[in-house]
Design brief:
The chain is of the alpha+beta class. It is built from five helices and four strands; from the N terminus they run ααββαββαα. Strand 3 and strand 4 form a beta hairpin. Helix 2 packs parallel to helix 4 and helix 3 packs across helix 4.
Amino acid sequence: ADHRYLQLSIRRQRQMCIRDSYREAMNMILEEGLENRIKRHRVCSGALYSGLSAIGLTPFAKEDSRSTVVIALNYLEGLEDKTFRNTLAQKFRVLVAGGFGNLKGKVFRVGCMGEVNRYHVMRTISSIASTLDMMGYKVDAKAGLNIAEEKLKEL
């Protein structure tokens, strides 16, 4: 009986934690305002698309089909997926996701949701440019950062 009570108690604690987390997330959205949050995601994703394009990466999706919360980019010719993502994570503490299915090793994905802001956009572009440079790809980080900064003026 004590074992069952303990299991129920743990389950209730988890449910309360999830409920409290959900409530806090909703409060954050309402505090910022839904329209403001959507605009921030749109502006930040636009800055990421533009900035990363300026350093030589190409978005996977056509412009009229692009997501504002997940930016998928094609790998440069010869760039090895795991080496790129591991270097980015270990050297710069920036995490990006790989592709999956038939896109595994062909694209990587950058998240642009939640509390993403100017700092995250600029740091991500800078870190990706630096990682590419470390891997032997000559990129113009300054061009990427300049165009992103211009796009971010809308915030």
